[in-house]
Amino acid sequence: MTFLDLLPLVIGVIATAILAGIMAGLLGVGGGIVLVPVLFWILSLTDFPPELTLHMAVATSLATIIFTSISSARAHYKRGGVDAGLLKLWAPGLVLGALSGGLAAKYIDASGLKLIFGGIALLVSINMATPKTLVLSTHMPRARIVNVMISYVVGGISSLMGIGGGTLSVPILSAFSFEIRRAVGTASAFGILIAIPAVIGFVLSGLGTPDRPPFSLGFVSVPAALLILPFTVTFAPVGAALAHKLDGKWIKRAFAVFLAITAVRMLSSALG
Questions:
Q1: Which of 14-28, 151-165, 190-204 reaches the highest mean pLDDT?
Q2: Which positions, given as ranges, span the membrane (predicted)?
Q3: Which residues lie below 8 Å from residue 32, measured CB to CB, with a gap of 6+?
Q4: Which listed site, 170, 184, 196, 248, has its alpha carbon 20 to 30 Å from 240?
Q5: Residue range 47-75, pLDDT digits in tens
Q6: Which residues touch 94 (CB under 8 Å, ≥6 apart)?
Q7: Number of CB atoms found within 10 A of residue 230's CB
């Protein structure tokens, strides 16, 4: 493949990285919910081994989320948008869940990973498009074990999907009447706790796997991560600033449509 052949792919990745950075700050989603499907489709257009495509997309997305989440969380923290108490309470479950997901990826084939990503993404898109947020309680669960269980599930599923914690945790926190801007800000910090152990798991899972591209650490493509990072890190604070200024209702709904289309395509690919 020549440089001219690669150029449209590089431009597509950069544009996706910019959008992912903005979404990370605006919605607390870590950018992975944008990066994973686009990286997956870009890799699918090449001669890349199909059995590795989604694993590489997920792991590479998680590697960038480490730094994107740091950038986004700092921006929210400066505005008082990070709940330190909840972060401390959920940290053990998020870390253990994310590490478990990364290590388990070795035993899940490409179709299984597509079903997980597509199924959860479809549910998330429906939730984002729903005008009225589901409310389960007027306060967070008080039992520590319940919080550990919830955070473990969030960490594990987020790891397998290659996303930050916000995609799942923001709807969950909102269901327990957690103020939305504070939920988004705290979720951006969750992304750090999820991405680091998840990347470790994906690196260990991918070691020795044949047909990986050059300069890969396990399932993580280092060149792709280095291309994405400057743009996601730069634009995450832009999204965080917008989150404190805009009514995100219509942005969320437009994103929900994109996510639903991606989820359906992912599911049809897995079941076809």
A1: 190-204
A2: 12-42, 54-77, 89-105, 112-130, 150-176, 183-207, 219-242, 254-271
A3: 20, 58, 61, 62, 64, 65, 158, 161, 162, 163, 164, 167
A4: 196
A5: 778 888 888 989 998 998 888 788 888 88
A6: 151, 152, 154, 155, 165, 190, 193, 194
A7: 14
